[in-house]
Amino acid sequence: MATKLNLTRDQLATFLKTHEQIKQFEALFKTVDTIAPATDTSQLELLVVAPEALPNSNVQTDYIDFQSHPPHVSRVRRMAWNAEDQTADLGMEYGVVQQVGLEYYARVQNNTGSTIANGTVVGFAGASTDSALSIAPYIADGSQPSLYIVGVMTHDLPDTGEKGYCTAWGHVRGINTTAFALGDVLYVSPTVAGAFTNVKPTAPNNVIPIAAVLRVGASDGEIFVRPTIEQQRYYGDFNKTADQSPAVTNTAYALTFDNTRIANGVSIGSPASRIVVSQSGLYQFNATVQISSGNSSAKNVYVWFRKNGTDVPNSTRLVTIDSNNGYIPIAIIEAYSLEANAYVELMFASTDTAITIDNVAATAFAPAAPAAVLSVTQLQQ
Question: Are 271 and 335 in the same domain?
Answer without folding.
Answer: yes
